[in-house]
Amino acid sequence: MSLRLILSCAMLAGVLGPAQTASAAQGPLAMPAARIPAVPAQAPQGTAVAPAVRAPAAPCSAPYRIDRTLPNGARWQLCWEMRTIEGLTLNKVVYTPKGNRPVSVLRSTALAQIHVPYDSGTPRYHDIGALGQSAIPLLAADCPGGERREQSVCVTTRPRGHAYLKSGYEEPSTSAQGHDLVVFAAFQVGWYTYLVEWAFSDDGAITPRVGATGSLAGSTTTAGHGWPIGVGSRDFEESHSHNVFWRLDFDIQGKAGDVVEQYDFSGTRTAKRKLKRTTFTKEAKALNRRTRWWRVVDRGVRNADGHPVSWELNNSDSSQYRGPAGEAFTRADVYVTDYRSCERLATVNPAPRCAGSVDRYVNGERLTDPVLWVNVGYHHVPRDEDADPMPTHWQGFRITPRDVTAKNPH
Ligand SMILES: [Cu+2]
């Protein structure tokens, strides 16, 4: 065991206290960490193109305020907080495309669960319940080119490759390099270290993702449920899924007028393809399809072409884990619910007067202020390279602007 893990154990034990550490112990190799066993558990008016509005008063104090103008002129403003239950939480996210007016995007977003069922059937962890208490103090090297806030949050800027490259016929080619504002924190949960990151791109895209690193849990199983790790074929490290849930409370220029639409394109083995739009008027569970995507649109907010401003959600990189009957929350890839403050986690929800899991938040209510829950699975089959430290494996999704500006605002 590395020194760092011993320190992490001590740190977590200190934070959680003896009662919780004792109940969380999962066997000789499990750490007394924050893992939870499986139990059924107004923005300013105006638009991106409207007459000038005064910049809103700063909604949070300096250490928690992020205001970054990227090299192409795009600006992101948001607030962060370290919540005890959800960990890193981002609030009041506002995007200003170069040369345009600010438009608010998200009222709040955070992780809503990391469900980790092992392939033999047990254990089945719910890793989020007290994530904020597991935040790891970051070293300067952990936050390259950036600034650390309150020790555990990194705010930095990162290149993202070509924003565009266009060859000219009679003129020289033009190209530009893009950048992301990146906000992240790291959390120690059992043997795993989770990197929880949001990238805000200079083209208006938002990429939430989770990286799992640290160490494998060390749980061994039979050949049918794992992969041989170490010399020979004696120890089979158990395969498992990381089913990560995010909660996204969209508020495009305030909560009024936000509508969720699902897009499909019919026409398999035919020359034609046809667009089909489904508007969700009530709370809904949705499944991934190859060409399916969703958007949150506010018809009261228009770009200079008169098109309603929206953000598009793509969730095409999920392994789509489907668990047994007792885990109905794994049976959909996107949930759309009406805002309710006590609906915070996708499973093991801590509020007693609220349902316990996201599948039960969907109960036929009319959508007036939609909240999206995105479920992205990754099936982790261990390999020799995972020992030790385990290379980061990433999973996430992307939200891209659709008709926020009338053309590329570069
Ligand atoms: Cu894993």
From TrEMBL:
Annotated Pfam families: Cu_amine_oxid
Protein name: Amine oxidase
Residues of the Copper amine oxidase catalytic domain: 62-409
Annotated keywords: Copper, Metal-binding, Oxidoreductase, Signal, TPQ
E.C. numbers: 1.4.3.-
GO molecular function: copper ion binding; primary methylamine oxidase activity; quinone binding
Presence of keyword Acyltransferase: no
UniProt modification remark: Topaquinone (TPQ) is generated by copper-dependent autoxidation of a specific tyrosyl residue.
Family affiliation: Belongs to the copper/topaquinone oxidase family.
Record-annotated active site: 127 (proton acceptor), 192 (schiff-base intermediate with substrate)
Coiled-coil region: none
Cofactor(s) required for function per UniProt: Cu cation
Signal peptide limits: 1-24
Domain of life of the native organism: Bacteria
Protein's GO biological process: amine metabolic process
Record-linked PANTHER family: COPPER AMINE OXIDASE (PTHR10638)
Comment on bound cofactor: Contains 1 topaquinone per subunit.
Modified residues (2',4',5'-topaquinone): 192
Transmembrane segments: none
InterPro entries, per database record: Cu_amine_oxidase (IPR000269), Cu_amine_oxidase_C (IPR015798), Cu_amine_oxidase_C_sf (IPR036460)
